[in-house]
Amino acid sequence: MARLARRLRSVLVVDDDRILLSALERDLRARGLTVLPAPTAERALELARSRHPDCALVDLCIGEESGIDLLRSLKSEQPELLVVLLTGHGAVQNVVDAFHGGAVDFLQKPVGGQQLLLALERALARTRGPSPTLARAEFDHITRVLQECHGNISEAARRLGIHRRSLQRKLQKTPPQ
């Protein structure tokens, strides 16, 4: 944890739910990180331009605005920015769009400080090595959701927004490298 705080100057946290935003801010600050909270995409862009954070945690739906559009704007202005997308809607298409937009991870809400720190650690590790393929990122996301559902295929398929049989076929394939 201390290693992570030394390697990150600041984390931009974007969520329109002010209670969740406050909780994430408090949790990350307690872990030694500087947090830049933003309840809107406009405020997030202002903070990104003025403070140049090392990473960003962005909600998929920021009011009526799209977190993926914000992700693309942030990455166009600051290509080295590590962005983790947060969502309550874990559909596979959202995951694909997020990774195409430049996200380094995709987490489903509710999310705690420890889970966020693990995502940030993974993001930092990826900057030191080759980027995972989209197939690998999808497989990792599916595996993570399945673990959150304690192995329940039907529940995982519902959370991912795909048919149960489609999920079973994906899981039968050899994991991508």
In words, what does this structure look like?
The protein has 177 residues and is an alpha/beta fold. The protein folds into 2 domains: 2-131, Rossmann fold; 135-177, Arc Repressor Mutant, subunit A (Orthogonal Bundle). Helix content is 56%, strand content 16%. The protein is built from 9 helices and 7 strands; from the N terminus they run αβαβαβββαβαβαααα. It has helices at residues 2-7, 18-30, 41-51, 67-77, 92-101, 113-128, 134-148, 153-160, 164-172; strands at residues 10-14, 34-38, 55-59, 61-62, 65-66, 82-87, 105-108. A 5-stranded parallel beta sheet has the order 2-1-3-6-7, sandwiched between helices. A hairpin with a 2-residue loop joins β4 and β5 (65-66). It starts with a helix and ends in a 5-residue tail after the last helix.
